[in-house]
Write a structure and sequence with these properties.
Layout (H helix, E strand, L loop, with lengths): L6 H11 L4 E10 L9 E4 L4 E3 L4 H16 L7 E7 L11 E9 L4 H8 L4 E6 L3 H10 L4 E7 L13 E5 L15 E4 L4 H18 L4 E4 L3 H13 L4 H4 L2 E2 L12 H15 L5
Parallel strand pairs: 6-7, 6-9, 7-8, 9-10, 10-11
Antiparallel strand pairs: 1-2, 1-5, 2-3, 4-5
Helix pairs in contact: 4-8
Length: about 280
């Protein structure tokens, strides 16, 4: 998955575009070493902007050109193309070439822009509304994930939620595994080890039948996972099946057990699991 711009940037674009026009600046094609890939965009307004095409002099010149387009804009569609060589003349040593498309946009273009620019979202199922779960939701809010947040308890979800989050009450909690979107990444961190075990078992059962859960992550220590392996083996799961579970979760090398620290490590691992490219 190519991670261009975020849900947050697109929400900003929608909110501002209903009030004033902008110029959409998009990376159309690239050659060699460049800051961002094709499809990356920013929207330039008269006195503000959202998104980024990589910063530096490239972005500075692109903003200046876009604002000049806004000044001389006339009714009707307008677009422009420019080629930038990222060498000494731009003060950037990447050495590649970036082709940019400049397009005048207004509120009437929002339906088409929603189709073109909405980030592709990977489905994530988060089991557990505890401290780490809450921290994860905040971190994932601005990343290209569609999050289903699941718990067996009433009243654990906050009233205000990011736009990419849907809450689900499930009792028993593992019953929700059957209805997960195929291709979902699963994060398991409920308030109870017994619930965690049931969710892991339900995920492995689904994986055995459908092989459509590419990532199953369980929070906890190596000791917890060793105990779970013995119990899952008693339920009939093989070592090869259990190898599909990642536990502990989160990228290695990040110290600290604060919920926010764990959330960042887990989010980084999720991005790795979907082939994130910077």
């Amino acid at each position: 998955m190519v991670f261009t711009n975020t849900n947050h940037h697109f929400a900003e674009l929608r909110g501002r575009l209903v009030r004033e026009p902008a110029v959409l600046v998009m990376v159309d094609a690239t050659q060699g070493s460049v800051p961002r890939e094709a499809g990356t965009w920013m929207a330039v307004f008269a006195e503000s902007l959202t998104g980024t095409i990589g910063g530096g002099h490239l972005e500075h010149q692109a903003i200046a050109h876009a604002r000049q387009m806004l000044k001389i804009a006339t009714p009707g569609p307008q677009s422009d193309h420019m080629r930038f060589a990222l060498g000494p003349s731009l003060g950037q040593c990447c050495g590649g070439v970036v082709h940019l498309v400049f397009e005048l946009i207004s509120a009437s273009d929002l339906p088409a822009l929603t189709v073109r620019l909405s980030p592709a979202a990977t489905s994530v199922a988060l089991f557990g509304g505890g401290h780490v779960g809450h921290a994860l939701v905040r971190v994932l809010a601005n990343l290209p994930f569609a999050l289903t947040w699941i718990d067996s308890r009433e009243g654990v979800f906050p009233d205000a939620l990011p736009g990419n989050v849907v809450c689900e009450h499930s009792e028993p909690v593992h019953a929700a595994v059957r209805a997960l979107t195929p291709g979902s990444r699963v994060l398991i961190m409920s308030f109870s080890h017994a619930e965690d075990l049931d969710v892991v078992a339900a995920c492995l059962e689904r994986q055995r039948k459908h092989a459509d859960l590419p990532y199953i992550g369980l929070i906890g220590s190596k000791t917890k996972w060793a105990t779970f392996q013995h119990r899952l083996e008693a339920r009939g799961f093989s070592a090869a099946e259990m190898a599909h579970v990642t536990s502990p979760i989160g990228v290695s090398g990040i110290a600290g057990k604060e919920p926010e620290v764990i959330a960042i490590a887990v989010a980084a691992q999720l991005l790795q699991s979907v082939g994130h490219k910077q």
